[in-house]
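Appendix B: complex inputs.
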Amino acid sequence: MRRLHPLSGAVSVGRGLVQGAFFGVIAGTTMVGVLGLPAWTIPLVPLALALLVGGFALARYYRFTYEIEGDTLAVDSGVFARQSREIPLGRIQNVDITQGVVNRLLGLAVVAFETAGGATTEATLDAVDEAEADRLRRLVQRHGETSPESGEAPAEADGESLREDASAPAAGPDTEELFAFDLRDLLTYAVVSVRPAAPVLLLVGLPLGIDILTTVLRYNLGVVGGPPSLSLAVLEAFGPPRLVALALLTLAQFLVAALVLSVALTLVEYYDFRLVREGDDLRYERGLLRRYSGTIPLSKVQTVSIRENVAMRRFGLATLVVETAGYSGGSQESAQGVAIPMAPRADVYALARDIEPFDDFDFERAPTRARRRYAARFAIVAGVVTAVGYAVDTFLLGSGYWWVLGGLFALVPPAAHLRWRHRGVALDDDVLATRSGFWRQTTRVVPYYRVQTVFVGRSPFQRRRDLATVTADTASTSSIFGGAARAYDVDDERAAQLRDTLRERLYTDLLERRRGTGQ
Amino acid sequence: MESLHPRVRFLWAGRSAIAGLVLLGLLVAVDRLFVAVPLELAVGGWVALVLVGAVHAVLAHRIWRFALEDDSLFLVRGVVTRTDTSVPYVRVQHVDTTRGPVERTAGLASVVVYTAGSRGADITIPGLRPDRATELRERLRELAGESEATDAV
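Resulting structure:
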């Protein structure tokens, strides 16, 4: 059995000592105050706590062992309650390697093994040295290539097209660089794929930069011709035009700041991005401060998604997301997921086809009565916004311009049309494809043999128009967060047809794949 | 298509009544500690909630149907949003029967079907007689075993 790297043990012991001492200082001073103990006992409490917490960390380090033997990964851990865990290598969906700043300096890496099912990462080694991380990754990878008789055998069928160029013996799969970002690509990507969360992050962070905020606001006041001091009385003295100018100026600055933040976050996250193919695995590396790398076995791919936002569509670019059934921690940061952040559309489709072969999709649109449904929905939203605007204007502002909001109704027909136009479903020979979203369009490709459960849902509004939404659930991670492949607002009869087709194809394709692997 | 045991309606209606009681208790606490809440309004709200819960329970029972089809378990449910669910037997990972304390008092049991899909635990058939639940679990297990053994995910 192997232990984690001694340095990582030392780091956690050190952290334990500091934490123990910190809480000890607080506990010690309170205890002396409350119990009236003599002052010389104060340093004893931190010392004792530091030794306790540090000692526990040391014990945990010594009691944590792991080893790959044959085709299982065994992990023994726990100081008081012992836990032994054995994970068959064939069940490991992906291996994620993370290096924080400290670990990078020490040459250490955290290795996480993800399996399907389970709400958390199955095993995390925190931390081993880089060479060991690489060795573990290769062991898991090699297992997938040399043991087609295991339960996860379909590796072969999937990888056929890939195998031809990866015909090297399993011992040393050849690597081929598929994609890399240079700084210019990365900058383009950062600008084009603005994070919707950036403004929220900025708002949350505002209290920290309150000085900067007041300076900016004072400057803005000066620009619109007010006195350089902040107070509500000043605002009241302003007429609506100057107030609006001030608001617009501030909003513009806020948006620019959010954009800068978003670009910075993306740069840090995707700095030096590389995607390579190693045998039957995709492997990527990324990150400026924290370095992430992960392997995605092509045989375990559940769904392939292609995302294009409005700006990317304009320039013919797309994002490719490859999902397995592993646990992703619900956040982008925990590595698994994005395979290619941004590349020309044709390249993205080529790689997607390499992973799951499919033809050009011929998307079937929802019946036009679905478009009326969207129009009705957007009209209700516009109506509510106008009503709220009317109320606010009548009771608070009194400008009499509330009817300007009525202009929103003009946007209803194009919005409904765009939503309708960008939704569709296609049944290919081997895959189901669904598409939705205008601003951020997502095309999901689900091989039939990956479908788990099929849901057909009808809301009361859909029932009125004989429409239904068909959801093909897979074991992929993103479907937990509402990202499942959905065919929206298809005709009722067509929905039943889709459901039956999916079920039939699931069985026939599973059989076919089994035959294909010679079982 | 098989429907659920009629007694499940009382279970569901009772559940919403109890949830309403919790809300009522909260309102009373708010009334005592912070702002005066008219008690008639609170009780009226609770009664309304219980009525809605009861109607919902009756409708839900009327709509709930399930069937063991050739290749999949088929469920129909949902009062507001109607959902049909097909769970192919190949995808069944394991099947549980569960009996919570309230269910036990009502003499009912549920069958929970797990798949590797992200909504695996969603698939629960409530309101079954215990012997029927056991039988259904056994049957599902057999069907899952009979269907081609393949990789689960």
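Chain B has a mean pLDDT of 87.
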